[in-house]
C-alpha cells in the first residue's frame, strides 16, 4: 500500500512549494495562505461528509472547539506547545463528536443539516454569554512553541507556517486515503441508496458516525491552526453563518478531489479581501450569486472543470440533476 | 410565584413572536418541501421596511394611530415583492430537485437578500419605538408589561386562527392540505400544484415579513437580525415537526417558555436553552412532535 495516487503526489509536491513561497512572498499573502489552510481543513471536514450526501451546516462547532481548546489551554494552563495544543483540540473534538454522533447518525438530508446547525448554535450561545471568556469578543492566544523550540519574530512566523502547511498536507493525504478506503466507498453508497447498503450487510449508522468523527477531528485541527495563525478566537467561529461559508466553499470547489476545497478556500479568502475592500455591502450578494450559478451550471463544482470527464457518470443526489446524464 | 407569572407572560410573548416568525417557514416546507433559509431575509426586510416607514410617517407629525397600519402594509409589500422575485425568478426553475440542494439554493438567496437590505437601508440601525410606546404598559401582579407585547400575542392568535380557518374552510385551503398530504396524487387529481406553490410562497414570505415588521418597534433594527431569527425559527418548526402548522404553535410555545424560564432563572442560558430543548425533543421524537410519516425509498 505504498502506492501514491496523483492527488497524493500533487499534495506532496505542493508542500515544498508552499514553504518556499512563504519565504519569497510578502508576509500578508503568506498570512492569507496560512489562514486559509486552517479553514481549508474545516472545508475538508464538510467535504468528506458531503461525499456521503450529508450537508453539515454546523461544522463551525468543531472549528470552534479546536480553537477554544487551544486558547483555553494557553490561557489557563500556560501550554504553548503547538503539538500539545493540537492534541488537546483533537481529543476534545473526538470525545464531543463520538457522543453527539449517536444522536446525529440517525438523521439524513435536511434533518442532518438542521441538527448539526442546532448543536453548533448551543456552543455559540454558551460562549457568547460566558463573560470569563470574553463573551462575543473572545480572547487572545499565546505565540506557539514547538517541543523545545521557541522561535521569535520572523522565524516564529515562518516556522508556524511550515508546520501548519505540513500538518494540513499530511491530513489531506490521510483523508484522500480515507475516501478510497472501504469507509469512503460505503459513504458514496450511502449517498446513492442507504437502504441497499444495509441490505448488503453494512451498518450505515456506523459509517456515518465514523465519518462524522473524522470530520470533527479534522475540523478541530483546522480550528487550532487557524486560531494560532490569527492569535485570537471568538464565538463567531461556531455561528451558523461561519459554517455556511464552509458549505459554500465545498459547493463552489466540488467534492471531486481533496485538493479542491483547499484551493477553493484560498481563492475565496483572496476574493473576500478584495471584495470587502471594494464594495463591502455587496460582498454577500456576490457570494450568493456565485453559489447560485455554481449550483445551476456546475453542479459538481469548479473541480469538474479540472477533472477529466469520466465515462461513467452516476446518480448524485447532493448535486442535483447530474443524474442520468451520460449513463 | 412572581417568577412563575413573569415566565408565563414573557413565555407567551416570546411564543407569539416565534410563531409569527416561523409559521411561514413551516407552511412553505409543508407544501413545497423547501426549507427556506431566505425566510430570515424576509423577516429582516419586513423589519427594515416597517421601521423605515414608521420613521418617515412619524416625521410628518400625524397621530401615532396610523403607524399601526404601516406595519402590515409594509410587511405585505416586502413579502410580496421579495417573495415574487425569488419564487418566479429562481425557485420555480428548481422544483422537484433534492431537498438538500434547495436548502443551499435558499441559503444563496438569503445571502443576496442580506445585501439587498443593506443596499436599500444602509448599515445604520433603525428605531421605531413610537407604536410600542403609544400602547403604554399593563401591570400584571405588579410587573409592568408593554401593551405592545399583548398586541403581538393578539396578532399571533389572529394569524393562527385565520390560517386554520383558511386551510379548513376555504376551497384554496382545502386543496392546499391535499397538496401537503401528497403532492403527486394531487397533481394527478388535476390540482395546479405550481400555482399553489406560488400562492404558498407569497403567504409564507409575507408572514415572515410580518414577523419582522411587528418586531421592529420593540428592537433596534440592525444588520444580522435575519441570521438570528432563522435559526430560532428552525428550532421551532423542527420541534413541532416540519410542515405542520399545529406543530409550529406547540414548538413556539415550548421554545417561548423555555427561553422565558431561562431568562428569569438563569439568564446566561437564554441563547442555548432553545437548542437544548430542541435536541432533547429530537432525541425522543426524531422528526418532531407532529411529523408526518414518510416512506423510505428502496
Automatic annotation (TrEMBL), chain A:
Record-linked CDD domains: TM_PBP1_LivM_like (cd06581)
Gene Ontology MF terms: branched-chain amino acid transmembrane transporter activity
Subcellular location: Cell membrane
Membrane-crossing segments per the record: 7-25, 60-77, 83-103, 156-175, 212-233, 245-271, 283-303
Gene Ontology, cellular component aspect: plasma membrane
Membrane is among the record's keywords: yes
Lipid bilayer topology: Multi-pass membrane protein
Keywords per UniProt: Cell membrane, Membrane, Transmembrane, Transmembrane helix
Protein name, UniProt field: Leucine/isoleucine/valine transporter permease subunit
UniProtKB/TrEMBL annotation, chain B:
Gene Ontology terms: cellular component: plasma membrane
Primary location: membrane
Topology relative to the membrane: Multi-pass membrane protein
One GO BP: amino acid transport
Subcellular location: Cell membrane
Alphabetized UniProt keyword annotations: Amino-acid transport, Cell membrane, Membrane, Transmembrane, Transmembrane helix, Transport
Transmembrane segments: 6-29, 41-58, 64-87, 99-121, 148-167, 196-215, 221-240, 272-293
UniProt entry tagged with the keyword Repeat: no
CDD domains: TM_PBP1_LivH_like
InterPro entries found in the cross-reference section: ABC_transp_permease (IPR001851), BCAA_transport_permease (IPR052157)
GO molecular function: transmembrane transporter activity
Listed Pfam families: BPD_transp_2
Family listed: Belongs to the binding-protein-dependent transport system permease family. LivHM subfamily.
PANTHER family (UniProt xref): ABC TRANSPORTER ATP-BINDING PROTEIN (PTHR11795:SF442), BRANCHED-CHAIN AMINO ACID TRANSPORT SYSTEM PERMEASE PROTEIN LIVH (PTHR11795)
Protein name (database record): High-affinity branched-chain amino acid transport system permease protein LivH
Species, as recorded: Pelagimonas phthalicica
Gene that this sequence comes from: livH_2
Amino acid at each position: 500500500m505504498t502506492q501514491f495516487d496523483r492527488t497524493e503526489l500533487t499534495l506532496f509536491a505542493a508542500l515544498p512549494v508552499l514553504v518556499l513561497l512563504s519565504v519569497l512572498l510578502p508576509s500578508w499573502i503568506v498570512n492569507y495562505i496560512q489562514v486559509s489552510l486552517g479553514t481549508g481543513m474545516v472545508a475538508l471536514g464538510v467535504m468528506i461528509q458531503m461525499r456521503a450526501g450529508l450537508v453539515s451546516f454546523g461544522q463551525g462547532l468543531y472549528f470552534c472547539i479546536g480553537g477554544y481548546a487551544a486558547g483555553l489551554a494557553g490561557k489557563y494552563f500556560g501550554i504553548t506547545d503547538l503539538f500539545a495544543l493540537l492534541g488537546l483540540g483533537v481529543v476534545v473534538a473526538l470525545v464531543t463528536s463520538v457522543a453527539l454522533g449517536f444522536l446525529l447518525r440517525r438523521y439524513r438530508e435536511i434533518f442532518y443539516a438542521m441538527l448539526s446547525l442546532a448543536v453548533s448554535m448551543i456552543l455559540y450561545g454558551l460562549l457568547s454569554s460566558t463573560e470569563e471568556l470574553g463573551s462575543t469578543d473572545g480572547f487572545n492566544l499565546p505565540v506557539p512553541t514547538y517541543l523545545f523550540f521557541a522561535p521569535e519574530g520572523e522565524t516564529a512566523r515562518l516556522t508556524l507556517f511550515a508546520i501548519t502547511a505540513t500538518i494540513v498536507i499530511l491530513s489531506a493525504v490521510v483523508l484522500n486515503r480515507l475516501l478510497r478506503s472501504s469507509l469512503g466507498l460505503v459513504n458514496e453508497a450511502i449517498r446513492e441508496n442507504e437502504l441497499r447498503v444495509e441490505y448488503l450487510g453494512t451498518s450505515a449508522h456506523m459509517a456515518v458516525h465514523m465519518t462524522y468523527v473524522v470530520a470533527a477531528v479534522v475540523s478541530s485541527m483546522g480550528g487550532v491552526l487557524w486560531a494560532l495563525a490569527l492569535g485570537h478566537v471568538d464565538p463567531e467561529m461556531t455561528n451558523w453563518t461561519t459554517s455556511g461559508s464552509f458549505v459554500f466553499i465545498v459547493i463552489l470547489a466540488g467534492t471531486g478531489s481533496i485538493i479542491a476545497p483547499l484551493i477553493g478556500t484560498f481563492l475565496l479568502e483572496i476574493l473576500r479581501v478584495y471584495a470587502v475592500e471594494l464594495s463591502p455591502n455587496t460582498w454577500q450578494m456576490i457570494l450568493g450569486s456565485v453559489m447560485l450559478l455554481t449550483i445551476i451550471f456546475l453542479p459538481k463544482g469548479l473541480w469538474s472543470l479540472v477533472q477529466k470527464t469520466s465515462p461513467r457518470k452516476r446518480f448524485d443526489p447532493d448535486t442535483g440533476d447530474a443524474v442520468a446524464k451520460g449513463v | 410565584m412572581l417568577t412563575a407569572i413573569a415566565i408565563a407572560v414573557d413565555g407567551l410573548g416570546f411564543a407569539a413572536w416565534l410563531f409569527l416568525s416561523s409559521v411561514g417557514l413551516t407552511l412553505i416546507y409543508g407544501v413545497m418541501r423547501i426549507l427556506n433559509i431566505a425566510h430570515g431575509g424576509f423577516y429582516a426586510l419586513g423589519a427594515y421596511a416597517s421601521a423605515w416607514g414608521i420613521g418617515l410617517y412619524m416625521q410628518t407629525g400625524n397621530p401615532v394611530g396610523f403607524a399601526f397600519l404601516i406595519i402590515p402594509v409594509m410587511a405585505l409589500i416586502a413579502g410580496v415583492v421579495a417573495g415574487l422575485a425569488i419564487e418566479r425568478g429562481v425557485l420555480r426553475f428548481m422544483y422537484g430537485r433534492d431537498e438538500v440542494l434547495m436548502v443551499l439554493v435558499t441559503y444563496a438567496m438569503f445571502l443576496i437578500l442580506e445585501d439587498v437590505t443593506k443596499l436599500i437601508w444602509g448599515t445604520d440601525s433603525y428605531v421605531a419605538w413610537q407604536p410600542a410606546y403609544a400602547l403604554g404598559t399593563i401591570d400584571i401582579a405588579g410587573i409592568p408589561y408593554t401593551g405592545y407585547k399583548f398586541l403581538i400575542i393578539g396578532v399571533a392568535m389572529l394569524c393562527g386562527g385565520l390560517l386554520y380557518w383558511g386551510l379548513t374552510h376555504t376551497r384554496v385551503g382545502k386543496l392546499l392540505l391535499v397538496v401537503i398530504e401528497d403532492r403527486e396524487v394531487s397533481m394527478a387529481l388535476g390540482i395546479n400544484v405550481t400555482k399553489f406553490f406560488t400562492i404558498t410562497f407569497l403567504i409564507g414570505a409575507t408572514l415572515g415579513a410580518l414577523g419582522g415588521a411587528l418586531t421592529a418597534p420593540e428592537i433596534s433594527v440592525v444588520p444580522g437580525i435575519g441570521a438570528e431569527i432563522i435559526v430560532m425559527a428552525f428550532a421551532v418548526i423542527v420541534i413541532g415537526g416540519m410542515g405542520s402548522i399545529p406543530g409550529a404553535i406547540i414548538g413556539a410555545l415550548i421554545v417561548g417558555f423555555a427561553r422565558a424560564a431561562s431568562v428569569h432563572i438563569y439568564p446566561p442560558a437564554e441563547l442555548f436553552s432553545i437548542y437544548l430543548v430542541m435536541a432533547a425533543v429530537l432525541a425522543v421524537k426524531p422528526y418532531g412532535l407532529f411529523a408526518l410519516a414518510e416512506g423510505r425509498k428502496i
